[in-house]
Amino acid sequence: MSFYTSLNGLKNAQTELGVIAHNIANVDTNGFKKGRTDFADVVAGSAQSDPRKIQGIGATLEAISQNFALGPIEQTGGALDLALTGDGFFTMRSAEGGKTLYTRNGGFGIDEASYINDGLNNRLQVFPTDADGTITSTTPVDAQIPATNADGAEFAGVTVGSDGAVTATYADGTFEVVGTVALASFISPTGLKQVGSSNWEATGISGAAKYGAPGAGQYGSLLSGALERSNVDIAEELVGLITAQRNFQANAKAIDTATQISQTVINLRT
Known about the structure:
The protein is an alpha+beta fold. It folds into 2 domains: 2-69 and 232-269, no CATH class; 73-228, no CATH class. Helix content is 22%, strand content 33%. The protein is built from 2 helices and 19 strands. It has helices at 2-25, 234-269; strands at residues 35-44, 55-66, 73-75, 82-84, 89-94, 100-103, 109-110, 116-117, 122-127, 141-142, 155-160, 165-170, 175-181, 183-185, 193-196, 199-201, 210-212, 222-224, 226-228. The strands form 5 sheets. Strands 5, 6, 9, 10, 11, 12, 13, 14, 15, 16 and 17 form an 11-stranded antiparallel beta sheet that branches. Strand 7 and strand 8 form a beta hairpin. The protein is elongated and about 100 Å long. 28% of the residues are buried. A flexible structure which links the flagellar filament to the drive apparatus in the basal body. This is Flagellar hook protein FlgE. Keywords: Bacterial flagellum, Cell projection, Cilium, Flagellum. Residues 224-268 form the Flagellar basal-body/hook protein C-terminal domain.
């Protein structure tokens, strides 16, 4: 039994090494949230077993949880580089499949169809507003900037306010509020499913998204001209890497010791 106990330990250490390696690889990925391995002990016993003599049979992986602590904020100066100071997520919609995604990576741009997107054909979602910037609906829609205004003047630039208002300016000096950035929050963000490119999907564990505007409640304030960097602490990860390596070596040594004991028993019988 000691072979399988130590083998489980080897697998767990290997999993931890993989999670740490993934964290280190994404130390420069905007909006990335580091992972952590959680293990649980395994015991074997029956109703007739003496609780003082129940033997443990190793450990098992309980979860690979995500840490959604705020990462460092880097000033970039880009009008469509957005960062959040709270627990909210930017809401994105895939232009191809219509899938709704959530992200903390606020590096946006404008595509050839005048939609604000993330460069992967996922469009930023905003709340529709009237001419005064008042939200008229709480159902998010694609953020699209008209190429010209009602008078035919060409688009000249865009700004995003701390309240999330996306304002387009035109060559004749006029401006138009396109919408207000729609933020999402979850009852259990650690239940979100990672889908890559710093994007997540809602699951039954995370609960459905609750939408709101920047500056309200837990959504946090919005900063234009800034990006949230990865929350990976490289020094902490390197220490964890050494610990995981030692755990792997210790379990490998336990297997080697069990092998020697088994060989000794076999030699006694022969």
